[in-house]
Amino acid sequence: MTLFAGAGTTSATSHFINGEWTEASGPTFAVRNPLNDELVADAAAGTAADMRTAVEAAAAAFHAWANLNPGARQQLFLKAADIVDRRHEELVALMAVEGGASRAFSSFQIRLSSAMLRQAAGWGYLPAGDVLRSDVPGRTAMVTRKPLGVVAGFTPWNGAFYLAWRTFLLPMAFGNTTVIKPSELAPMSAGLIHAEILEEAGFPAGSFNVVTNAPGDAAAVSEVFFEHPAVRCINFTGSDKTARILGAQAGRALKRMVLELGGFNPVLVLDDADLEESIKAVTFGAFLHQGQVCMNSRKVYVHRSLHDEFVSRLAERVQALKIGDPLDPEVIIGPLITDQAVAQIHERVQDAVDRGATLVTGGTFEGRLYAPTILTHVPADAICTTGSDETFGPLLVIEAFDDVDAAFRDAQDVPYGLSASIMTRDRARGLDLAQRFDTGIVHVNAPTMASEAALPVGGVKDSGWGRSGHYAVEDFTEVRLATMSSEPGRYPF
Ligand code: ADP
Questions:
Q1: Is pLDDT larger for residue 8 or for residue 36?
Q2: Nearest CA to ligand 1 atom 19
Q3: 154 close to ligand 1 (CB < 6 Angstrom)
């Protein structure tokens, strides 16, 4: 099966269940190019019954997958990595038409994905546990990490290709089987294309399953994740708003949840920062994928001595970013995903300007193409600067500071805690500040978006919990204690 051969309309009207492309029993829904609303694919509008079949296939496949030897699992992951690399151009085109991703962003995701597959290929050889000493004479205690069972995943539309791997590959690498429900906005790049890749690589039937759903059906279809006893963990990548609803459901069902949510991601440019490097890092960090990634920089605090030059040079660099159809390899800024996304950013820019903010550049749009926007002198009560609700688009707020501690306190005073950056030539000072940041990730002299496949990425506070890289072993395994006694016991009765 080839869902997508690089151009034109394609048919994605099947789920991938138990190693087979299962034609949708019911209706389909249209997936459209966010640039021009052209039809990209028809996708299957799955039902709770489809999802139940997929969960049962994953449950049936669990024992064999969990017990597959590490060498065999390694070969499968390495093969999948090669397929990802081979299909690079096709994946770039798919992410452009389905998600509005520029080549810069899709290539970044493809490289991270094959790197993660190659990393994960070795995790089967990580130590399986510990042998502990016991106070009881003659007793040995063994602690072994065991996979959980079926891990269900919600995969998002934004960094669709990479974040989907992140959602199901980490659990699979530690012996779990998976079922995913891709975002309605990108069913192919957030799941179906992965099914094709794993199928070609030869993954066993049922180890990985995908059921797509139409907009409006998400709650009914994903209900199965919470009610089915075989599902032992739900791995969600999306907004904190939806995570609160699903978290309550998981609580009622007593299921483990792993959450990768939003961020507000500040950058501190200290008085001794390399200005050119800071401008490059902020342009990339704020505007990659037109600001629709959880790790995009949202607010930059710049020392007053550098502020004016920083703002004018940054604006110049940002104005040079080509806006348009991401199928053009020169384009950096593609369309926002929906009209609602355009309306949200525009309302927030207007709100800030109405309150007295200075619009340095941007603030205009054509269709869903929103010009990268920079605001300065933003009053503290403007929605875009409070950090209470992420603006998921190309909007950056810049603020001058005199006192680094005050700037640091302000940068921390947000509900999110995903990523942060500090730009300084004094690396020791940077590291000292970095250690005090209450975020899951902090970089000194790098953008807030500095992901690497092997490094643990994840948030604190409203940005969620759980980590990528091999640290995901904590999220997707449980510890089993076994003891063995070689001497007769001593009992009180
Ligand atoms: P975004 O706004 O970035 O699309 P959301 O958090 O709204 O992110 O959605 C992420 C995923 O959660 C999607 O797959 C969507 O189908 C699903 N979803 C949204 N609302 C619900 C809900 N009430 N119940 C179950 N799933 C939902």
A1: 36
A2: 242
A3: yes
Residues in the chain: 493
Confidence at residue 25, expressed as pLDDT on a 0 to 100 scale: 73
- At 433-462, the pLDDT tens digits run 999 999 999 999 999 998 899 999 999 999
Assess if CATH 3.40.190.10 describes domain 266-444: no
Convert the pLDDT of each residue in 42-76 to its tens digit: 999 999 999 999 999 999 999 999 999 999 999 99
Q: Which residue minimizes the CA distance to atom 13 of ligand 1?
A: 183
Domain assignments of the chain as residue spans, ordered by start: 10-261+463-480, 266-444
Question: What CATH superfamily classification does 10-261+463-480 receive?
Answer: Aldehyde Dehydrogenase; Chain A, domain 1 (3.40.605.10)
Cβ partners under 8 Å of residue 324, min gap 6: 331, 333, 334, 369
Distance CA(440)–CA(430), nearest Å, equals 16
Tell me the pLDDT tens digit for each residue of 106-117: 999 999 999 999
| Residue 152 near residue 55 (C-beta atoms within 8 A) | yes
Ligand 1 binding pocket mutation candidate from 31, 239, 240, 242 (most atoms within 8 A of CB): 242
Between the CA of 35 and the centroid of ligand 1 the distance, in Å, is: 22
Assess whether the C-beta atom of 219 lies below 6 angstroms from ligand 1.
Answer: yes
The answer to whether the CB of 124 is under 6 A from ligand 1 is: no
Q: Cβ neighbours of residue 75 under 8 Å, at least 6 residues apart?
A: 121
- pLDDT tops 90 at residue 23: no
The closest residue, in CA terms, to atom 2 on ligand 1 is 239
Q: How far apart are the first and last CA of the chain?
A: 67
The pLDDT of residue 468 is above 60: yes
pLDDT at 11 > cutoff 90: no
Catalytic residue ranges: 260, 294
- In this prediction, residue 8 carries a pLDDT of 46
Judge if the beta carbon of residue 184 lies within 6 A of ligand 1.
yes
Q: Do domains 10-261+463-480 and 266-444 have the same CATH topology?
A: no
Q: Is 237 in the pocket of ligand 1 (CB under 6 A)?
A: no
- On whether the CB atoms of residues 187 and 31 are closer than 8 A, the answer is yes
Q: Tell me phi and psi for residue 37, to 5 degrees.
A: 65, 10
Mean pLDDT to the nearest integer, 163-174: 98
95 and 107 in contact (C-beta within 8 Å)? Answer: no
